[in-house]
């Protein structure tokens, strides 16, 4: 099975996280599309050199001067994806073994396959419970066992995904309860996912909507993938802080 995973890099992350790609190449036959999301010229040069040295790597530069939000980047990449599967994984994931062995058998039966929970998470942290208001990115299932998916390591059936996005107008964006289509709310209520203060993180409404339409999702444990978790967020925050600092300096000149 030919799969191409998108790996999104934000400013400040390339130098530290690019070496992880070598482990993904070593332990799989997959291809990887390295995505520059507002990266600096120096970082894009590093990505270009790395892709030139490996036939299974390619570079994609998102046409933006500032990094897009995570959900906007995913919406952009999915809209231009013409492959059978839309796949992506976090840039702070590395492989320590043949990580696709347990994944491949789950691809055909499911519209989406999700893995790569951060190493620091306890199993209980991954469960959304009825008393919570925010369905976080870390929540990959409900207490009743309904898959919520995530955005760490993902393989979608791109035909099913594209059809749903086009017909329902729902992508990877975050949504509050008031932004949920009225036709979807009773189904969510039946899953203990309703509430005026509920907030759904990136991709959660999309994944739930797919299931409401009859699609199935699979959330897997992934012992051969080590997800450090949160490094891109820290890198982007540091980049914003640096930009603000420069603006403050310019203002004093």
Quickly list its features:
253 residues, alpha/beta, three-stranded mixed sheet, 14 strands, globular, disordered C terminus
Morphology call? globular
**Helix share of residues?**
25-40%
Secondary structure tally: strands: 14
Q: Give me the strand/helix succession.
A: EHHEHEHEEHEEEEEHEHEHEEH
Radius of gyration: 19 Å
> Strand pairing plus helix content: what structural class?
alpha/beta
Q: Give the strand order, joined by hyphens, for the main sheet.
A: 3-2-1-4-10-6-13
Mean pLDDT: 92
Biggest sheet character: 7 strands, mixed
What does this structure look like?
The chain has 253 residues and is α/β, with parallel strands linked by helices. Helices cover 34% and strands 20% of the residues. It has helices spanning 14-17, 20-26, 41-52, 70-80, 104-107, 158-168, 185-190, 204-212, 231-252; strands at residues 4-9, 31-36, 57-61, 85-89, 93-95, 112-115, 127-128, 134-135, 141-142, 153-157, 175-176, 199-200, 217-219, 225-227. A 7-stranded mixed sheet has the order 3-2-1-4-10-6-13, sandwiched between helices. Helix 3 (41-52) links the parallel strand 2 (31-36) and strand 3. The radius of gyration is 19 Å and the shape is globular. The N and C termini lie far apart (57 Å). 36% of the residues are buried.
């Amino acid at each position: 099975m030919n799969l191409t995973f998108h790996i999104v890099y934000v400013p400040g992350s390339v130098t530290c996280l690019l070496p992880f790609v070598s482990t993904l190449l070593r332990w799989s036959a997959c291809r990887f599309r390295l995505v520059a999301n507002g990266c600096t010229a120096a970082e894009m040069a590093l990505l270009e050199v790395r892709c030139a040295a490996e036939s299974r790597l390619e570079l994609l530069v998102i046409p933006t001067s500032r990094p897009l939000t995570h959900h906007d980047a995913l919406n952009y990449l999915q809209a231009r994806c013409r492959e059978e599967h839309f796949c992506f994984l976090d840039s702070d994931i590395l492989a320590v073994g043949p990580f696709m062995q347990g994944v491949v058998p789950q691809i055909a039966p499911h519209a989406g396959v999700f893995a790569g929970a951060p190493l620091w998470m306890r199993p209980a942290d991954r469960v959304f419970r009825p008393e919570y208001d925010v369905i976080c990115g870390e929540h990959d299932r409900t207490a009743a066992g309904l898959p919520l998916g995530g955005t760490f390591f993902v393989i979608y059936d791109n035909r099913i995904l594209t059809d749903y996005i086009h017909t329902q107008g729902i992508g990877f964006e975050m949504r509050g309860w008031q932004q949920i289509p009225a036709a979807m709310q009773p189904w969510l209520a039946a899953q203990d996912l309703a509430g005026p203060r509920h907030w759904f993180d990136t991709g959660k409404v999309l994944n739930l909507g797919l299931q409401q339409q009859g699609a199935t999702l699979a959330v897997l444990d992934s012992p051969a993938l080590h997800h450090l978790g949160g490094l891109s967020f820290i890198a982007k925050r540091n980049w914003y802080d640096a930009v603000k600092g420069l603006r403050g300096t310019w203002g004093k000149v």
